[in-house]
């Protein structure tokens, strides 16, 4: 009888353990399962739980998205697409960034320390390297200036010459895309005036960006522009 009771207790224990496993397994399996193929999914709780927000990857590029007055409230995501997802702490692809590979899940607070789970903009790209640039934002026919290197951060696009920048752009331009058919000539003073001198004493006049060209500005030009003109003259005269 003792052996029978012992065996019975073993059976009951095994059944209890099996029931507990059957209870836990569906909860674990359900995480991220409601994210459709070719969809970027955000969740307001860790590990793919909680409320779900979907961003279908109809195009490789998702223009800057803002949520909750500029910040995404998500705690986790499933990148169930074939593209990389680029997450940025600031709007317009600015500030600290983190890239999440295709077919990958992540808890946002566990990503780079400086990101700290705060996402103000994001986009899908064909490679991780595309996360570090925003040149594609400048439309054809426009001249675009950016507040950060490699066309990241705040952007201003125009088709006109500017005799003087609004104060918000004084000494802020860090990169340029010239998608016009004209030469873009930049100056350190209003009225298309002034020039630069480098550490070796070499003097420069206007800083010129060729039609169809893009650049991150080197020293001594970075963050010094205050006016520009678009001209057909290659010498900026």
TrEMBL record:
The residues forming the signal peptide are 1-29
Show the Pfam families listed in the entry. Answer: Inhibitor_I36 (PF03995)
Query: What is the protein's given name?
Result: Peptidase inhibitor family I36 protein
Keywords assigned by UniProt, alphabetized: Signal
In terms of superkingdom, the source organism counts as: Bacteria
Please tell me the species this chain comes from. Answer: Streptomyces roseoviridis
Keyword Signal on entry: yes
């Amino acid at each position: 009888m003792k052996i029978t009771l012992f065996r019975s207790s073993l059976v009951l224990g095994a059944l209890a353990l099996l029931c507990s496993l059957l209870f836990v397994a569906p909860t674990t399996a359900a995480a991220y399962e409601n994210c459709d193929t070719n969809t970027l999914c955000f969740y307001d709780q860790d590990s793919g739980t909680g409320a779900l927000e979907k961003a279908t990857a109809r195009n490789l590029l998702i223009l800057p998205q803002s949520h909750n007055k500029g910040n995404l409230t998500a705690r986790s995501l499933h990148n169930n697409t074939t593209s990389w997802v680029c997450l940025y702490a600031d709007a317009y692809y600015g500030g600290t960034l983190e890239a999440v590979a295709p077919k990958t899940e992540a808890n946002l607070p566990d990503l780079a320390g400086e990101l700290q789970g705060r996402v103000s903009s994001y986009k899908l790209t064909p490679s991780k390297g595309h996360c570090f640039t925003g040149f594609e934002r400048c439309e054809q026919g426009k001249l675009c200036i950016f507040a950060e290197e490699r066309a990241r951060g705040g952007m201003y696009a125009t088709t006109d010459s500017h005799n003087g920048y609004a104060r918000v752009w004084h000494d802020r331009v860090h990169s340029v895309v010239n998608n016009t058919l004209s030469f873009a000539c930049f100056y350190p003073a209003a009225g298309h005036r002034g020039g630069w001198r480098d550490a070796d004493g070499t003097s420069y006049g206007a800083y010129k960006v060729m039609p169809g060209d893009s650049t991150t500005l080197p020293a001594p030009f970075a963050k010094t522009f205050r006016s520009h003109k678009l001209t057909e003259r290659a010498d900026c005269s």
